[in-house]
Amino acid sequence: MKPIQSGKRAGSIILVLDANIWIKERLLKSKLGAVLLYTVMRISGKIALSWVTEEESIMGIVKEAEKSATAIKENLVTIRVLMGRSPDVPLPTQEEIAKKAKERFEELAKLIYRVDPSFEQTKSSLKRVIAGLAPNRKKEQFRDSLLWEMAIELSRSHDVHFITQDSDFYEDYNTGELATELKKEVAETGGTLSIYKNLETFMEKFAKYVPPLDYHRIAVTLDDTIKQDLLEYGENKLFTLGKLQDHKIVAFLTEKKEFLALKFHLKYEITNAPRLDNIILPNAVLVVRGNCFFNIESGLISEIELDSIEGEAPNGEMIPNLTTSYSRGNVVIGLRKIPYRLRKELQ
């Protein structure tokens, strides 16, 4: 892994997200949000959060949910007019939505760096508003001013990466250049602070610092875990299982920040493989496909489930009597549906 050198305090990465980013990315449950959480975990970073931003985000999520609920009700009225009836769709209350949003922040506790505004920061924010200083050039923005005050303070001890789409923070929004007076403040405090218009820009910058998954190690762990079952399978099918020959593993991000969902394809050498015509193949291949979870933090694999075991002759022809497919009770697009919804393939 390359050392992170984004500022003078390498390795001490703090993200500051304004409330609109939290709301837009559905408290980081969106695809981009899942990638951001993965990136932050892999670079050992943290996301700064104050009670002000948390409350503003929860209120924003509740409003967004209310808009969706209103649209659902209006569309059901249309269906009722056309069909004479419509399904009864129970919708969550404001309290239930707010509770879920609060629980989401609790889920992210390990990645969150709690900060709360001091009295001095509050006074300084009010002075910005009164003087019309950035980020108040176009309209009064006390909460954003307070967020900036906390970001500046954090920049004294961390490499701060501030993500906001509010144009008042920028000298030129198109180029993404920080407002001149704000840039001067950063220089005066001796802090390290970078600004980004969106999550993509931040992740593009830090992609090179994210250590790749060790797919070989994961494959070896999978092999160790299922080897005994495959040996017994070989005894039942009258062939001898050899060593792991090759593997292909695809990782998917999930809503659970510490878990990746894996689809695996393991290929084993086998000997003395019987065919239906009683011909014994001295060498063949056993292909094992399945799904499991991988915990990024602990490196442990769990909930391994096989989708199929297939015998293949050296010419690639399937050996039917060595092949087994496992049906699942819950299937989506031909694949077993696992508890965590697959959000985005990890490249």
Tally of contiguous helical segments:
9
Largest beta sheet: strand ordering: 12-11-10-9-8-15
Low-confidence stretches: 1-11, 328-343
Report the structural category.
alpha/beta
The rough form would be described as elongated
The CATH class of the largest domain turns out to be Alpha Beta
SSE order: EHHEHHEHHEEEHEHHEEEEEEEE
Based on the coordinates given, report the CATH architecture of the largest domain.
3-Layer(aba) Sandwich
Radius of gyration: 27 Å
Would you give the CATH topology of the largest domain?
Rossmann fold
Considering the protein shown, what is the CATH homologous superfamily of the largest domain? 5'-nuclease
- Proportion in helices: 25-40%
What's the total number of strands? 15
Per-chain topology:
Elements: E1 13-17, H1 19-24, H2 31-42, E2 46-49, H3 51-83, H4 94-107, E3 112-114, H5 119-131, H6 142-154, E4 159-163, E5 170-172, E6 177-178, H7 180-189, E7 192-196, H8 199-206, H9 215-237, E8 240-253, E9 259-274, E10 280-295, E11 301-312, E12 318-325, E13 331-332, E14 335-336, E15 344-345
Parallel strand pairs: 1-2, 1-4, 2-3, 4-7
Antiparallel strand pairs: 5-6, 8-9, 8-15, 9-10, 10-11, 11-12, 13-14
